[in-house]
Write a structure and sequence with these properties.
Mean pLDDT: 89
Number of domains: 2
Organism: Mucor ambiguus
Strand content: 5-15%
Low-confidence stretches: 8-21, 430-456
Helix content: 25-40%
Largest sheet: 7 strands, mixed
Oligomer: single chain
Shape: globular
Protein name: Periplasmic binding protein
Structural class: alpha/beta
Number of strands: 17
Keywords: Signal
Length: about 450
């Protein structure tokens, strides 16, 4: 009897040990699949901490062997099933099911690339819609390895075959003439109303790779750094007024009628405020003539020109019909504070503005802080994206020779970790940018070294 009980206990112990051995302490990554499935095991011990991010357009729900990701902006739902385990059966036909972790992906929108780079999944991209527009120097280097295909723009048969060779397609196919079909993981990061919310989509992409712990660390560090920078820039007694403007030149898309636009995009308002400035409060956002716009912005301290055409001051003055004699009428010109978003471009004209700063919230805030206060966040800070055309600052063109990190590891954030004191802004800064100073110099050398390493 004793021997029988001992035998049963031994069997039970072996069974319990077998189940315990199957329960992972970390998510399975890099294509790892479950070999022996147990319905009682939680295969995602590392979960997204979405309570601390500011994304509003996606959510995630965890089950033992699958997760449900919802993009509320597009109304799409995705079930991500741990490979080696069964998919749930109670899924409607409109829901797409993917086996995770993903190892082969297509990036149909350039904005997707920096997110996958930052979580260390860039080399999972095996298909790209137009690699010439991707500004990341290390991704440009990866493009030349031959491990990634360019999506055919004209051969539909080849295009379909290329897409079949990947597990997931992030973003809409730009060459697809048919309306959005049920084979794409939709994106919505650029619709987020908050700078940190846009960066929080790191978590959305990480879920497809079981890289939740990586995303959690990135989001926390970025959010903390952003908030420290925001706090340091919040004490100016006088807040400069900023306007984001666009000249919409006559074209077939606007009935050959020019117009001028003041942007009031929520993330730009938040970014401006967080940098220690304030957005122009205008009664109108669209103007039929340059004269009407200029009347509205004559007292603006800082202007950010988002016009696609015209990369220098001469072109800017022509686009806005500002004569040499009239330049002294506008504070943003006497302050020498007119910026464009083309600080980093590819050789074919692709804007990094639509890529890295979307995913790097704190780095973007650093740029905006420096546009407001040229001696913050450090004396030697060099802006990445906002380029001062009054000072004739050069455009930086990225090539693979600029690559300073490995694409098989997480891409470094361009932001410097800030731990300094509150910034100070002279009372005359709105009328004389050269007089703006700050007491804080913490991180100056680190910022300079990081920028040189990236762009040299």
């Amino acid at each position: 009897m004793v021997a029988k009980i001992a035998s049963l206990l031994a069997i039970a112990t072996v069974a319990i040990s077998s189940v315990a051995a199957q329960a992972p302490t970390a998510n399975l990554i890099n294509g790892q699949c479950v070999t022996t499935y147990d319905a009682s095991v939680d295969y995602f011990p590392e979960k997204l901490n979405t309570n601390e991010d500011k994304a509003t357009y996606f959510s995630i729900e965890y089950h033992n062997n699958y997760k449900i990701v919802k993009n509320s902006r597009t109304g799409r739902t995705y079930v991500l099933v741990q490979c080696g385990t069964p998919a749930p059966t109670d899924v409607n036909n409109a829901t797409e099911i993917y086996q995770v972790p993903i190892t082969k992906a297509a990036a149909m929108e350039t904005t997707v690339v920096p997110y996958l780079e930052m979580i260390g999944a860039a080399e999972s991209i095996k298909l790209i819609a137009d690699g010439s527009l991707v500004s990341s120097p290390c991704f440009q280097k990866y493009l030349n390895t031959g491990d990634i295909a360019q999506l055919s723009a004209t051969n539909e048969t080849l295009q379909a075959e290329q897409i079949k060779n990947v597990q997931v397609q992030f973003g809409a196919n730009p060459y697809d003439t048919v309306a959005d079909t049920n084979n794409t993981v939709t994106t919505a990061q650029t619709y987020e109303p908050d700078v940190l919310g846009r960066a929080s989509w790191l978590s959305y992409y990480a879920a497809f790779y079981n890289l939740e712990s990586v995303a959690n660390n990135l989001t926390k560090n970025m959010t903390d750094n952003y908030n420290r920078l925001k706090e340091a820039a919040s004490h100016y007694s006088t807040k400069p007024v900023v306007a984001w403007t666009t000249y919409d030149a006559p074209s077939q898309y606007n009935n050959n009628t020019a117009s001028y636009i003041l942007s009031e995009a929520s993330y730009k308002v938040g970014l401006t405020n967080d940098a220690g400035a304030t957005m122009l409060n205008a009664t109108s956002t669209t103007f039929a003539s340059a004269a009407d716009l200029l009347k509205a912005i004559s007292n603006v301290d800082i202007l950010i020109d988002e016009t696609f055409i015209g990369s220098n001051l001469t072109a800017f003055l022509q686009n806005y019909n500002i004569s040499e004699a009239d330049q002294s009428k506008y504070k943003f010109l006497t302050n020498k504070k007119v910026y464009r978003e083309d600080g980093i471009l590819t050789s074919s004209g692709g804007y990094d503005w639509f890529e890295a700063p979307v995913a790097m919230a704190d780095a973007l805030l650093e740029d905006m802080i420096n546009a407001v206060n040229p001696s913050a966040p450090s004396d030697n800070y060099k802006r990445n994206w906002l380029r001062n055309i009054v000072l004739n600052e050069p455009i930086k063109t990225t090539t693979e020779s600029n690559c300073s990190w490995a694409e098989d590891a997480p891409r470094p954030n361009l932001a410097t970790q800030f731990n300094g004191n509150a910034f100070t802004l002279s009372s005359s800064s709105s009328s004389d940018a050269n007089k703006v100073r700050t007491l804080n110099i913490a991180g100056a050398l680190a910022a300079a070294v990081a920028t040189l390493a990236y762009l040299s």
